[in-house]
Amino acid sequence: MPTYAVCLAIISSALPSPAANSSLEGCANGTSSVRREWSALGKPERLAFVGAVKCLMDKPSQIPQGEAPGALNRYDDFIATHINYTHVIHSNGIFLSWHRHYLHLFEKALQDECGYQGSLPYWNWPWWASDLHSSPLFDGSPTSLGGDGYYNASSEPRANGNYTFPRGNGGGCVAAGPFANTTLHFKRTKGIPTTNDPNKLEYAPHCLTRDLNNGIASEYCSQSRVDGVLASPDIATIQSLLSDFVPGTPIMGPHNGGHYAVGEDMQDQFASPSDPTFWLHHGMIDLLWTRWQAKDPANRQYALDGTVTSLNRPPSQNATLDYMLDFGFLDKSRPVSTFMDVKKEIFDYSYEYVEGKGEPGEYER
Ligand SMILES: *[C@@H]1O[C@H](CO)[C@@H](O)[C@H](O)[C@H]1NC(C)=O
Ligand SMILES: *[C@@H]1O[C@H](CO)[C@@H](O)[C@H](O)[C@H]1NC(C)=O
Ligand SMILES: *[C@@H]1O[C@H](CO)[C@@H](O)[C@H](O)[C@H]1NC(C)=O
Ligand SMILES: *[C@@H]1O[C@H](CO)[C@@H](O)[C@H](O)[C@H]1NC(C)=O
Ligand SMILES: *[C@@H]1O[C@H](CO)[C@@H](O)[C@H](O)[C@H]1NC(C)=O
Ligand SMILES: *[C@@H]1O[C@H](CO)[C@@H](O)[C@H](O)[C@H]1NC(C)=O
Ligand SMILES: [Cu+2]
């Protein structure tokens, strides 16, 4: 991206010792990007995305030694950051804004550190929910993000508290495609993050597993769920329809549904960015928030609801526009207000969104 490179050069000479990612400032012009559904990318574009993700996995970690023992590469830095803040960025009033910037930082790393020319793709859940295995995202081809896991009869089925979903045909290490047998470096964590585990960043290698589950995807990531989310009258409702779940029951929204539909690593609320699917899944969540905001900017653009701890445990203040969000070693702290409009401040992107249900293959190129 030549325009971006120019901008980077100007900024880095202006700021001798910049905080991480000061290159974000003032670079909105000329970098406007359009995020598209995975299947709307041409095959070379999909390969470029996969290549850039692998490039981050091949670069050294930039987190200071000892701060995150499981962070062995640059991609791990992103996982470490999510793990580190999991207990304060989910099921609360900053979930949407924190993740919006987190995706943006990842997109910028792909572009600036790995020469990726595209923008972050997203996963339009309903298009593929009934047949994940043959979707362009999970068909196991070189232009997918890899396929299902090997069948592992003793791997654990997806559970929400004591409620257990019927399992799929995988459960083992990803068997085919670009991320087959990928080794992950952080330990797996189960359960809801309302405590701050001091050992959460420790090194505990295992393979990336999946257990693609069409039943979960069809139920929780359906077009009617998406339509319901978009029809939310207020911020409290859209947050609730996206993410609420009731432990011990099958009640949950498409945010959780997408995590559960892919497998054990995507279901890990701490380390879920370990599965590259995470970025596309959260792209869809950000798309829905963006579209919902655009329907009534006067009332919705800067609307917040909820506190700043997960499930408000321990009880905390309400999220406000000046509340500072932390991104560890990925970026400096910034106020929530920075992240409320995808066309303002440090952002300049939009989503290409095709309404309604497509057919698998319809958008293949
Ligand atoms: C972007 O361009 C517009 C119009 O040329 C200008 O008004 C605005 O200040 C520019 N923004 C930045 C961040 O350079
Ligand atoms: C199958 O899953 C069990 C339980 O998680 C695990 O202990 C075992 O290592 C897995 N086997 C393979 C081959 O992945
Ligand atoms: C799961 O079941 C156990 C034993 O019946 C119970 O103690 C626990 O509270 C239940 N957990 C949830 C989340 O419902
Ligand atoms: C993944 O690892 C298993 C067990 O070592 C091996 O049998 C299999 O061939 C590997 N698959 C790929 C695609 O590398
Ligand atoms: C926090 O938000 C809730 C719900 O919007 C509201 O009822 C409450 O008064 C707020 N608390 C403070 C301290 O502003
Ligand atoms: C984790 O969060 C704490 C508290 O904000 C911070 O001091 C630390 O640097 C963070 N570590 C990482 C790896 O992000
Ligand atoms: Cu998250």
TrEMBL record:
Coiled coil: none annotated. Keywords: Metal-binding, Oxidoreductase. Residues 90-107, 275-286 form the Tyrosinase copper-binding domain. InterPro entries: Di-copper_centre_dom_sf (IPR008922), Tyrosinase/Hemocyanin (IPR050316), Tyrosinase_Cu-bd (IPR002227). It holds the Pfam family Tyrosinase. GO terms for molecular function: metal ion binding; oxidoreductase activity. PANTHER family: N-ACETYL-6-HYDROXYTRYPTOPHAN OXIDASE IVOB-RELATED, TYROSINASE FAMILY MEMBER. This is Tyrosinase copper-binding domain-containing protein. It comes from Periconia digitata.
